[in-house]
């Protein structure tokens, strides 16, 4: 009878557990990979290498993308937490002064345009909440339904439920085209996204990629782009980002606030499904353009 050598036995003891883990995890990995491919291209290679790369990014990515208040707030441990299981808002006092300084002077200013007078949104749905925008139009209504399903990939970040119909996506893309024209033509331009790739058109601050504040990170002068299923990414001010997440219209990117990758206020706006949600989307897009442009008076485009 041949007995295995001690080195061989030791090698087997070391390699067997990870091999068994991979074997048992393979069905889950394949399912996740199929979902990754089904989402479509965006940012990372649309193949298994891109899938592995986004998996590696999970080491630094954040999972608290829907946290209210956001992670850069100081929590007051002297306050007792709510016993209401439906309350997803923690107790916090003020944002981290270092974050406020980094996004100064406009980070704590709302740039949301006022809602249209014809909107059916009532005062009850737009009441002020702590941390909401401070500008003349710095309030949003609460989104009327639960948040959509967003798979846990670091990138691309997309929603797989409550997607927009093709006519809505065409309307959104048309809005961006009108936004960069007319009175805004000297400030904004439309060109292929530097974050998502050439298959996505994005609004940029004209000629400013190399002269942006440090907090813009890899976004540089890119302000907003629309995805194939109707969601979009936009950089807004801190308070407008807080308002959008709090009211259920958005969530932060997993890399928002991570090092110098993306701004804390780089958020994914959920796909609008009707005229009222589309109006909220247009307000947030214009707010982002005003913030990134340094407070310029960006005019609302024709819807």
Automatic annotation (TrEMBL):
<dbReference type="InterPro" id="IPR048273">
    <property type="entry name" value="Luciferase"/>
</dbReference>
<feature type="compositionally biased region" description="Acidic residues">
    <location>
        <begin position="85"/>
        <end position="94"/>
    </location>
</feature>
<dbReference type="Pfam" id="PF17648">
    <property type="entry name" value="Luciferase"/>
</dbReference>
<protein>
    <recommendedName>
        <fullName>Luciferase domain-containing protein</fullName>
    </recommendedName>
</protein>
<feature type="domain" description="Luciferase">
    <location>
        <begin position="221"/>
        <end position="287"/>
    </location>
</feature>
<dbReference type="InterPro" id="IPR040841">
    <property type="entry name" value="Luciferase_dom"/>
</dbReference>
<feature type="compositionally biased region" description="Low complexity">
    <location>
        <begin position="113"/>
        <end position="126"/>
    </location>
</feature>
<feature type="region of interest" description="Disordered">
    <location>
        <begin position="72"/>
        <end position="151"/>
    </location>
</feature>
């Amino acid at each position: 009878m041949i007995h295995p050598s001690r080195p061989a036995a030791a090698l087997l003891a070391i390699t067997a557990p990870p091999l068994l883990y991979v074997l048992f995890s393979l069905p889950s990995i394949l399912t996740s990979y199929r979902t990754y491919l089904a989402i479509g291209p965006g940012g990372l290679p649309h193949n298994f290498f891109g899938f592995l790369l986004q998996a590696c990014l999970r080491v630094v990515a954040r999972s608290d993308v829907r946290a209210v208040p956001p992670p850069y707030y100081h929590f007051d441990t002297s306050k007792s937490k709510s016993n209401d299981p439906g309350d997803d808002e923690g107790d916090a006092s003020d944002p981290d002064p270092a974050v406020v300084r980094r996004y100064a002077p406009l980070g704590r200013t709302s740039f949301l345009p006022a809602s249209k007078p014809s909107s059916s949104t009532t005062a009850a749905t737009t009441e002020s909440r702590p941390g909401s925008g401070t500008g003349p139009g710095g309030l949003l209504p609460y989104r009327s339904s639960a948040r959509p399903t967003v798979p846990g990939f670091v990138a691309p970040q997309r929603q797989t439920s409550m997607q927009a119909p093709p006519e809505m996506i065409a309307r959104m893309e048309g809005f961006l085209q009108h936004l960069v024209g007319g009175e805004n033509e000297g400030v904004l331009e439309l060109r292929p996204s530097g974050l998502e790739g050439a298959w996505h058109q994005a609004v940029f601050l004209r000629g400013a990629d190399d002269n942006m504040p440090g907090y813009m990170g890899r976004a540089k002068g890119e302000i907003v782009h629309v995805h194939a299923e109707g969601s979009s990414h936009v950089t807004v001010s801190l308070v407008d980002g807080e308002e959008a997440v709090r009211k259920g219209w958005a969530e932060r990117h997993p890399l928002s606030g991570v090092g110098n990758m993306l701004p804390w206020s780089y958020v994914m706006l959920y796909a609008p499904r009707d005229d009222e949600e589309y109006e909220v989307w247009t307000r947030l897009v214009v707010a982002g353009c005003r913030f990134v442009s340094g407070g310029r008076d960006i005019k609302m485009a024709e819807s």
